[in-house]
Amino acid sequence: MWYLAHGVFRRVFAPSITAFQPDVVHGHDGLALPLTVRVAQASGAICVFDSHELEAHRNHPLIWAMRPRIQALERRFLPRVNAVLTVSRTIASHLEEHYAIKRPTVLYNAPPRTPAPLPQRWKGSPRMTVRYEAELNATAVLLVYTGNIATGRGIEQTLQNLAELEQNAQDQRDIHLEVVRQNWTAC
C-alpha cells in the first residue's frame, strides 16, 4: 500500500501545490518524498525532506517485499533534495552512508539539557504546564512522553528503566512519567 500511495499523492496533490509556486517544499514522511521532490523540481522550489525516522525500519511491521521498495524510492529521491533533516546522529549516518547524500542536519526532537529562558510572549500561566496539571513541585523529576502509544516507541524500556531507577536510587527524588495527549490530558 505504501509503495502505491506515493503515486496517488503525486496525482492528487502535485498540480495544486505546484500551481501555488512555493519557494520551499518540505516533505515530512517517506510517503511524501516523491511528491516533495517532484513538486520542488516542477516549481523551482528548494526541496527539504524531514527524515524523522528510517522509513524502511518503521515501527509498524513491513511485509518482506516492502523494505527493498521503500529503500529504492529513498535511493532514487533523497539525492535530489537540497537538504535532509533528521532527529539523531545515528539516522544521519545511516542516510549518509546508504544513500550517498550530504550528511543530514540533526535537529533533536527534545529540549536542551539546560533550558533557555522563554521569551515573555510564550510565558503562560502555570496552569498551562504539565508540571502544574500533574501537581508536581519544582524539585520532582518530570519525564514527559508525547506521541503515539505503540510497540517499538521505547515505552516498555522507559517503564522498565524507571522501575530499576526507583529500586536503585541513592537519593529519594520524586520521579514522574506523564503521558500527554491532546488537550493536555495527563495520565
From TrEMBL:
Top-level taxon of the source organism: Bacteria
GO molecular function, one term: glycosyltransferase activity
Domain Glycosyltransferase subfamily 4-like N-terminal: 11-109
InterPro entries linked: Glyco_trans_4-like_N
Keyword Transferase found: yes
Pfam families, per the entry: Glyco_transf_4
Keyword match Transferase: yes
Keywords: Transferase
Coiled coil: none
Name of the protein described by the UniProt record: Putative glycosyl transferase
Species name: Planktotalea frisia
Taxonomy of the source species: Bacteria, Pseudomonadati, Pseudomonadota, Alphaproteobacteria, Rhodobacterales
